[in-house]
Amino acid sequence: MRCCRYAAVTALLAVAVWGTSVTAADLPNIVVILADDLGYADISVHGCTDIATPNIDRLAHTGVRCTDGYVTHPYCSPTRAGLITGRYQQRFGNENNPAYDPLNPFLGLHREEPTIADRLKQAGYRSAVIGKWHLGAAAPFHPTRRGFDYFYGFLGGGHDYFRVDLRQPLLGGYFLPLEENGRPVVFDGYLTDALTDAAVRFIERHRDEPFFLYVAYNAPHTPLQAPEKYLKQTQGIDDRKRRVYAAMVVGLDAGVGRILDALERTGLRRRTVVFFLSDNGGIPRTSGSSNRPLRGRKGMLYEGGIRVPFLVSWPGTLPEGRTYERPVSCLDIAATAAELAGLNRQQRAGLEGVNLVPYFRGEKEGDPHEALFWRTAGGRQWAVRAGRWKLLKPSADRPVELYDLAADIGESQDLAGDKPEVVARLRSLYEAWNSKNVPPRFPNPQPYRRIMMKVYQEIEEGSR
Known about the structure:
By secondary structure, the protein is an alpha/beta fold. 30% of the residues lie in helices and 16% in strands.
């Protein structure tokens, strides 16, 4: 009865979005596929020649490729907090990675912030998280207590791709069993494939009701591990590190393909909008990834840390094969989903993105955002982009830098000294935005992480 009541309400609300009467069955499904540490240059449609990504390419060919797609942070958890709430995470203090601590009720996504799953539940959507959560390991932060009906994956920031081994140290949960709605489960084979299996099962189970599916792969995040079936496809790459990384991207691409195939097999493809993006840029020295032609890497506010592959596909509704060159944000995913679900203004309150559909269809012109903003470490690094201009404070002890991204995508020529009026305007925009932020609620667990990864590497070397 509850779903039916929601469906009726949703049908009325959706009239405002679509202009005609619709039923819950007409509401689009929303699928968000998030890669982890994927380099900007490491998909075929961005010019990659040594890694084949035909299924990710399918999204670009059947939808819109956003050349200037951004996340709200240059590393894992804060980006996810922004994506899953549709709000800048600095508004509520989720600006750092939380340490993995299942007993700490403070380290995680602020409990008063509604998630997109909370909002979509009002329209009768079923919601699932598959894969990496990284928004708090304690019970109050569990996905099923944050609006999601189903969770299959792991709560920490990473996991071994082959093993569950309770004899190992805690190591941020890297060797713990996966979870299925709080029940520990052991996966067989390769983790990326296991996550894809769970995503496909969810699609098949919920084909008859609107759903929101968030598939958060940990590939190609370290540890660099891949099975032989994917390594065979990258054996022509000489550099061992990049060869394994490439195999992980191949496995990720295969997962994207199986998800698209499941949508087609169930007759849902034209009723489903699919977003694909990465949580931040790659780390070339660590993983062998590439962010070319962008400057910088994960952890930095140069383009290589925050500009990511960003694809949106909805056959029959969005133009196919379009390249969209204006700046868009991961915040726009929640805002787009909320409007497509027919949520009213009160139900969308607080969302800071925009509905991208009319921009992609050419019904709205101009930039979707007056400006986009970034802040890390409580303000020691910050940046703002408005149109072609980007003002960047790269560290606490360095002056601001100004770049014309339309002419200098690689951020090689600092124009701050030549354009003081642009610097002043962008700084003013940043300060107005920052005045509504709060300090970070918890520190980054970097010292612990360094120890954890050293122990992990010793375990890896001992197992060879």
